[in-house]
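quick one, 576 residues, struct below
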Amino acid sequence: MSRDEVADDKGFEQFEKFLEAWSRRDFLKRAGGAAAYMAFLGGAVEFLDACAGNPNTTTTTAKKGGHVVEGNFSDIRTLNSMLSSDTASNQVIGLMFDGLLNYKKSGDLIPALAADLPKQSADGLTYTFKLRPNLKFSDGQPITSDDVKFTYQLAYDPQYADVASPRRGDLSKYIASIDTPDPLTVVIKTTQVFAPFLASHGLYGILPKHVLGSLSAKAINTADFNTAPSVTSGAFKFVSWEKGQQVTMARNDNYWAGAPYLDQWIYKVLPDSVAVTNQLKTGEIDIGPVDPGQFDALRTTSTVAMSEFGVPTFTFYAYQLDPTKPAGPLFQDKAVRQALLYALDRQSIVTAVFFGHGQVANSVEPPISWAYKDKPQVVVGFDKAKAESLLEGAGWAKGSDGIRAKNGLKLKFTMITNAGNKQRESMLTVMQQAWHDIGVEATPSLIQFPQLVSQIVSIRTFDLFLVGFNWSADPDVSPLYHSRNAVPGGFNGADFKNDQADTLLDQALNTLDRTKRKQLYGQFQDLMSDLQPSPVILFNKGIYGVNTRVQGTDFGPFNQFAQRPWNHGVWVTDGK
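---
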């Protein structure tokens, strides 16, 4: 990127100074981790910590034995599929627990534990699943309809109201009942038409009732199973979790699709995104997200195959909107929220921080979604003068120290993101400078990814957080923006509550007519472009590297994290 593109832009000059301070060579090395994939969650959506994608397959005969090491820069939080709200946890959960359904990389649903896609009643309210015969958990016990019912009860049944599931807001509203007429049949009835039910809620890993069924709701939140599951339903079974280092899994010989080729799958936790890329180069890890700053260098590494593609993921920041929290009063006025976004040169962020591997966002729907609206009612570009004008008009005047204040309250706050995600660390530095230039004091603070997720879904004492979010193939964005999901454990940790937003989201959920749904989501995107409660900075790209010794991976837009139907078919050419 050259100075000529915006030669007279003082904000850009500050950004250039920032790059010079790092030294461009050092910046290329260290700015990394196509991060943003916090997303939080599971099944339908989740907070993201990294990026994704890459097929690596040959026609050579598969070999049994050996291991794969997958690297990432975020540790997991839980191994319970109904408690998880982040991609790191879901990535590992997906190796050990299968759901009723799964995704192709295109986003098309395919059966997993279910023998086929469910039959749906004419009124759209009843889903009848038939399980595959002779399903077994890793301990040899049968997987039955009772296990499916129990798993979903954790997030919708009043008797489990104390289970801190991020899925409770939607499932407790939309699931009316679950019946199990026989061990292989599950009948789920919804309270009303719920268009994204299968795509967003049909993929949760099924848990063993014979292990967890005797526990109280509160006990499930802290059960040993959550960190060391003794029984699994997926391709691999749990061996150990060394916190901050790695999770080790072994072949599950009872897996319904056939025992995996690999002896072990290891999820390795590394200090940051650059370390992940470096260990891909050295062969210390076999699979991992590629740091955008290292993309070109890694592309010349003969032992690593890479691919890049669009993903249903974005990087965003969210204001503390709860007026009872210390920072809440700062962000109640949408003029302040809009001003802070106008002050950011997001194209420079995409170009310099993500090295062009991304796209400036104008919407809360990702471009690969059929509901995406390219030009919503309000399109916010980089405009420092407008940002300052909005703040002045809202009564925020600069004091002698250069910081804006109103009624004795300074426009001063802390921004948090996850340490080790070099893109996000760099973004906070850029945001700090851009906002300082308009009289706002924003201080970056780096915490570990599991703690960041806890801040968003439960603790919620933050002022502003920066993270990524990963969506399902359905355009439903209510997990992040509907007021019902502001409950503890829900994804709406920013406490955004708006009646018009709720109405549009509910109407879109309650119709199966795609044309009507698209219109409603278009109106919702218009509304959010004006309110800006959680501004989206960019839409991310998925970038994954896979060592050429590893065969059978098939990364794509919708199966880079938990949903990987190809896991059991991965093998290594050297058998090691």
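Residues 1-44, 50-55 have pLDDT under 50 and may be disordered.
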